[in-house]
Amino acid sequence: MAKKLAEGRKVDTVELVKEYLENSVFKDATLIQHEILKGIRKILDEKGFVELLPVTVSPITDPLNHPHFEAEFEYYGQKYSVTKSMILHKQVAVLVHKKIYIVSPNVRLETEDKMDSGRHLFDFVQIDMEMLESSREDVFDVMEDAIIYTIKTIKEKYPEIISKYHPTLKIPPNHLNDTQLRN
Questions:
Q1: What pLDDT does residue 64 have?
Q2: How far is 170 from 79, CA to CA, in rounded Å?
Q3: What phi-psi label fits residue 90: left (phi over 0), alpha (psi between -120 and 50 degrees) or beta?
Q4: Residue 1: what pLDDT?
């Protein structure tokens, strides 16, 4: 069994990696994760969005609005931070391309009091999307289309995984029909 921290959390080890590789939950989760990314990319690409690569290290990053540890270093006389969020970068990028998205990894060194909150992850990936000169409703419509398409695709492609973990998963209603969804 993998080594554990005093609080009972597992430490990354070769044994832990082996456990993940042998665990069907991990295999199922990665298949669904892949399909989520593929589905959302498909809809955003069809709607004219440009995918940008994430910025992982930068002299500017979101300062966050709560206590956390900084992941900073100096390189050639310039101070850099591990990017906590793409919020500043996407605001600049949207001046070049009016519709952009980024599959963005985030590292946030939260304080110990956040460890058991259930809301604060140390390392996670999010899809950042930005649309210049668009209303909030326009953004919601695009994301709704992407989510509905993705759930529909996952239910069709992986019914056995869905029935194992979330047999009551329903495709949310959409105010647009399927032909409009693809435009």
A1: 66
A2: 48
A3: alpha
A4: 41
Cα separation, 119 vs 137, in Å, equals 26
Task: Return the domain boundaries, the chain.
Answer: 33-181
* Class of the domain covering 33-181: alpha beta
Q: Which residue has the tokens 């990053």?
A: 61
Rounded to the nearest angstrom, the gap between the alpha carbon of residue 85 and the centroid of all alpha carbons in its chain is: 11
Other Cβ atoms less than 10 A from the Cβ of 97: the count is 15
The reported pLDDT for the residue numbered 38 is 97
Q: Which two tokens stand for residue 176?
A: 């647009």
DSSP label of 135 = -
DSSP labels, 46-68: HTT-EE-PPP-EES-----SS-E
Range 124-153 average pLDDT: 94
C-beta of residue 93 within 8 angstroms of C-beta of residue 124? no
